[in-house]
Amino acid sequence: MDTQTHLEDLSNEIFFEIFDYLHALDIFTAFASLNKRISSVLQLISLRVIVSIIHCRNQIDFLSSHLTFHSHQVISIKINDTIRDDTSMISLLFNRHNFIN
Length: 101
Description:
Helix 4 links the parallel strand 1 and strand 2 (74-79). It is built from five helices and two strands; from the N terminus they run αααβαβα. The model has no long low-confidence stretch (mean pLDDT 81). The protein is mostly helical. Helix 4 (57-70) runs parallel beside helix 5. A two-stranded parallel ribbon has the order 1-2. The protein has one domain (11-94).
């Protein structure tokens, strides 16, 4: 008898709880292309975007490409003080999207 639990066996509510502890970049990096079910769960969650000095340009570009389809789910954006004045990094993320306050 197989008593192993697989990721796909978890309920959507468990995924919502897990994703509530993660930031958008972490969610998209780890879960974006696993399967159709998880992709559909990603359409339903709220996203917290954090941009910090530890994120390289490739990571910001990756995040920005996913926000093309998920920008309506963003509930908060935090920009680290050390990159606040880096206009190239800021424009890379925000010129592609129309966030409404």
